[in-house]
Amino acid sequence: MKTVDDFNFKGKTALVRVDFNVPLDENGIVTDPTRIRRAKPTILKILNDGGKAVLMSHLGRPKGRDEKLSLKHIVPAVEKELGVPVHFSPEISGPVAEKAAKDLPFGQVLLLENLRFDPREKKGDPGFARELARLGDIYVNDAFGTAHRAHASTAVIARYFPGRKAAGHLLASETNTIQKLLTEARHPVTAIIGGAKVSSKIGVLENLLNVVDNLIIVGGMAFTFLKALGYPTGNSLVEDDYVETARNILEKAKTNNIRLLLPVDVVAADRFAPDAQTRIVPADNIPDGWMGLDIGPKTREQIARVVNQSKTVLWNGPAGVFEMEPFAEGTVAIARALAEATKNGAFTVVGGGDSVAALEKYGLAGKVSYVSTGGGAMLEMLEGKELPGIKALEEE
Ligand code: AMP
User: Fold this and answer.
1) Ligand 1 atom closest to Cα of residue 197
2) Closest CA to 346 of 364, 368, 362
3) Of ligand 1's atoms, which has the minimum distance to the CA of residue 223?
4) Which residues form the catalytic set?
């Protein structure tokens, strides 16, 4: 796979797929510019070569045109982060966008309107991809967060740029980091996987059993495993259809000699609310009428110990319903444990919107080795799947 460093963009128009799916407040102001900042090295390389950059991204999940999700709102933030003039095209493709790209001075940036205003984007429509392709000489993909989607701008478009397509710095570093984690990590390797459901993470859990020494399962998904072990789980989130799957994963861990850790205690609540009554109960005996919404103090300690003894740690998914303060402590403890391990020389990688948000909330994002901008994309790579966005760059 070629990267932007393999090209000289002098006199060229780069058509760059970025992931500027940033959070906006009610006034349309960008509240966290991290994703813009992470695309900066790629864009500056193009401009510094003497090229110009036409940027395309999605924002949110619009159904057709939706003023609130117009990318015009983020132009000031992009300008501020990049430090160069940023023009905006209210059309995504077609004559208006083509003229804007042609008139764009070298050294400057054009941002196209939200790709998902056109329903053909998500369908991976080749006609739409061809229209977009008319906006640049070289295609660059730096949107790791959507690399697992076979959309028009993330994968299909690449076929119109034979020999003229490249990965951006961010996409390349995300890919290299995860590959390194899967193939040449220093042991012991520990993965902490949390979040709501087992059903969305089975593939990852199964593949990780070939990679890690310790697999720690937290979050809502842990209760399906506790049920598989025959423990009463009260009103906790359990996916009954996946109890058998959980049992198989427990078996495979045993066969592979992997230490699989489940919570030993949980913060149980009498209802799903921030002001619920709570009590700490053993994970193997959650009383009727109570639901586990976070890991308990003994589990937090146990995780910190294992993380501390690891040379490589991967974390994806919260340990509890961290959006509610009383159930955030487990997630915070994991964030802290990773920061501590990093300080002691471990290589630590965090992905997934919730885990990254937790790191940021507690000021720890700079204290781990690598923060991935991809949740779903990272999980699919960890499953061992080839991502459509990356495959498209590798093809001739
Ligand atoms: P996911 O999208 O699968 O990564 O799951 C993230 C969501 O899982 C967050 O919104 C958490 O509130 C939720 N979650 C974590 N732990 C629990 C739990 N014990 N019970 C219910 N939901 C949970």
Assistant:
1) 3
2) 368
3) 19
4) 35, 197, 353, 376
- For atom 18 of ligand 1, the residue with the nearest CA is 220
CA 342, CA 17: separation in Å to the nearest integer? 32
**In-domain check, residue 75:** yes
Per-residue tens of pLDDT for the chain, all 396 residues = 999 999 999 999 999 999 999 999 999 999 989 999 999 999 999 999 999 999 999 999 999 999 999 999 999 999 999 999 999 999 999 999 999 999 999 999 999 999 999 999 999 999 999 999 999 999 999 999 999 999 999 999 999 999 999 999 999 999 999 999 999 999 999 999 999 989 989 999 999 999 999 999 999 999 999 999 999 999 999 999 999 999 999 999 999 999 999 999 999 999 999 999 999 999 999 999 999 999 999 999 999 999 999 999 999 999 999 999 999 999 999 999 999 999 999 999 999 888 988 898 899 999 999 999 888 999 999 999 999 999 999 987
**Ligand 1 environment, Cβ below 6 A:** 195-197, 200, 219-220, 237, 292-293, 317-318, 320-321, 323, 352, 354
391 assigned to some structural domain:
no
114 and 211 together in one domain: no
Residue 331, classed as helix, strand or coil, is helix
* Nearest C-alpha neighbor of 347 from the set 305, 300, 302, 310: 310
CA 33 – ligand 1 centroid, Å: 25
Q: Judge whether 156 and 388 are in contact, CB under 8 Å.
A: no
Range of the domain at 231: 185-382
